[in-house]
Amino acid sequence: MNLLELLRSQARRFRCPVCGESMADCGIKVLAQQGNRALVRVTCSSCNDENLLQIVIQTEADLSTEPARPALFDEPRPADGAPIAGDELLDLHSFLADWSGDLRELTEK
Ligand SMILES: [Zn+2]
Question: What distance in angstroms lies between residue 79's CA and the mean position of ligand 1's atoms?
Answer without folding.
Answer: 38
